[in-house]
Design brief:
The protein is built from 12 helices and no strands. By secondary structure, it is an all-alpha fold.
Length: 300
């Protein structure tokens, strides 16, 4: 039992660090590649990594059309669109801000359920979490002064990316989880599906394929973003999910913005305004409420 405990703790720390560092890797990659290029390279490396993991574990990859159509849907919501939007936004805003906004994902999930997935019941805690998250978002962007020091469209791109994640979760629960696939196979299908969606946009619609110098740091950042952020971190997350349960696993989303802010400030020398960490703290609290961290407060 102690060994099992240590194993999931290591996986928990690994997933939190990797996903938090992903915003740093995106910022570095975006100095040399257009947004759609960052998304595609990340996805193809992630798909290859997950493919290797699947083969090592001896799982089979489904070949039927219905499953792959659903993989494409999940890949659009969970990978193709948000990865491109984050890469675009991080050419205009700090990676720290991107990491903080990403913590609104649980709030966006409540909105998605309200709009398109009415079959899922929204709890009282989720309603309170939604309200707190919206308030935190207004603080985060400095709503009393427009959008603070940030441009309108990049900030909207960040929130649109989290809305995609919000729709992606319920979509996966409704259409992919009933297929009872191994979690690594489901992750591979979504990442590979996202790569398929992004590929034609990068090859045929992106005006330029490279916008800067592809040096060793860019290559390492993209390798880490793909292999770790879209590959290994999924496996680590599912290890936590199996060993410690979903309540513990879901708190990883509350750790990643802290890592993103620290790396953005320390490694990239990014500056932050007082209202960004304050708004982020309010959002994280709202996300924790929506995830049921304070159940006793909302019992009838």
């Amino acid at each position: 039992m102690p060994q099992q405990s240590r194993n999931w703790v290591v996986s928990y720390i690994a997933a939190g660090l990797i996903w938090g560092a992903s915003f740093l890797f995106i910022a570095v990659g975006a100095t040399a590649l257009p947004a759609v290029g960052v998304a595609f390279v990340r996805l193809i490396i992630g798909a290859i990594t997950l493919f290797v993991i699947i083969k090592v574990k001896g799982y089979k990859i489904p070949t039927d059309l219905d499953t792959w159509l659903k993989f494409l849907g999940g890949g659009a919501f969970m990978s193709a669109i948000p990865f491109t939007l984050f890469a675009y936004a991080e050419t205009h805003v700090t990676s720290a801000l991107a990491g903080i906004v990403n913590s609104t994902t649980p709030i966006a999930t409540v909105l998605a359920i309200l709009i398109a997935f009415r079959s899922e019941k929204i709890t009282r805690a989720q309603w309170f979490g939604l309200g707190i998250g919206i308030l935190g978002s207004l603080v985060l962007i400095g709503a009393w002064k427009g959008f603070g020091k940030n441009e309108f469209w990049p900030v909207m791109a960040l929130f649109a990316a989290t809305v995609c994640y919000g729709f992606g979760g319920p979509f996966i629960r409704r259409f992919i989880e009933p297929k009872k696939l191994p979690t690594e196979v489901g992750a591979f299908g979504q990442v590979a599906g996202g790569a398929v969606i992004v590929l034609p946009f990068y090859l045929f619609l992106a005006p330029v394929k490279v916008i800067g110098t592809i040096d060793i740091w860019v290559m390492l950042a993209m390798l880490a973003l793909g292999a770790l952020g879209s590959g290994v971190a999924y496996v680590a997350y599912y290890n936590v999910l199996k060993a410690a349960g979903s309540p513990i696993a879901s708190t990883i989303t509350l750790v990643t913005p802290i890592v993103a802010v620290l790396l953005g400030v320390v490694v990239l020398g990014e500056g932050i305004h007082w209202y960004e960490p304050v708004g982020g703290a309010v959002i994280i609290f709202g996300a924790a409420v929506a995830q049921g961290r304070f159940k006793k407060l909302f019992r009838s």
